[in-house]
Amino acid sequence: MRTETLAILCSPLEHAPLELTSETSADGATAQFLSNREYGLKFPVRDGIPVFIERHEVTGLNSRFRKIYDGWAPFYDLLSRVGLLFFGISEPKLRSDFVETLEIKAGDRVLATSVGTGADLQYLRRDCHYYGLDLSAGMLRVCQKKLRKLAVSTELFLGQAEYLPFKDRTFDMVYQMGGINFFSDQGRAIREMVRVAKEGSKIVIMDETEKVARALEYVPGISAWFSHRRRPIVPPVSLIPEGMEQIESREWYNGLAWYLSFRKPH
Ligand SMILES: C[S@@+](CC[C@H](N)C(=O)[O-])C[C@H]1O[C@@H](n2cnc3c(N)ncnc32)[C@H](O)[C@@H]1O
After folding, report:
1. Ligand 1 centre and the CA of 60: distance in Å?
2. Could you tell me if the CB of 192 is within 6 A of ligand 1?
3. Within-domain flag for 62
4. Which of these, 60, 207, 206, 76, lies nearest to 140 by C-alpha position?
5. Ligand 1 pocket member 136 (CB < 6 A)
6. Ligand 1: which residue has its CA nearest to atom 26?
7. Distance from the CA of 62 to the center of ligand 1, in angstroms?
8. Domain housing 109
9. What is the mean pLDDT of each run of 10 residues along the chain (266 residues)?
10. Which of 75, 78, 159, 161 is the most core-located residue (most Cβ within 10 A)?
């Protein structure tokens, strides 16, 4: 782990600073942890990925979707490409259009709060530092494999978007693409995006619309994804914290996606 990364991490609940520690077991194997002795905190680092959440700590919709994405992870990239084509959308075009709306400069720290398999990594500029958090270890494993072939400086974290393990005012750009429709607590996840963003930075959120949910709710295998919803999907404009500036909410791609952006004031 880069020293710079250690400096921006904190525990997701207490926001306590963390240090990298290691322990050697009787069989000689060494395990790494992110720890804070004062608070009695110890987060394992497994296969290079800091784990800020264990299965039993995930509840509600997050628990349901964690299982779904863990199962779908090996097929996700293919399914998402084919699924988008079903709606007449080219995935490369969608992702490059989306990435173009982000404000990323050379050297920026960029956070994606549900990075998934990192399908948008190849569209990002190479001279920034990219941080990807996701709830599903399966999705992160696929992302990690992809990263071996991509020259994008990226670090991955297992956690919940509602409880980010990063210090206040850390990132130059924070975004989330696909996923927030099914978060356990959308409002908390948005407040966390704002907390970790630096003043003046743009925050971008995008997901599919109700139109897509209605079309997919009868498709075998996927219907369960959408059957939980008790009300139609709407962009969470009302959950944007007070005082945010330049709020923009629009439909995109023929009403198939909603796009929401705003700026954290200086
Ligand atoms: C549709 S995928 C999108 C992945 C990626 N952003 C993309 O554009 O392909 C949704 C992702 O959100 C993740 N996710 C769902 N709920 C989450 C939460 N509460 N916190 C963090 N990630 C979450 C899932 O594990 C999954 O990887």
Report:
1. 15
2. no
3. yes
4. 76
5. yes
6. 116
7. 10
8. 48-263
9. 92 96 90 96 96 89 92 94 92 96 96 97 94 98 94 94 98 96 95 98 96 86 76 94 97 95 97
10. 161
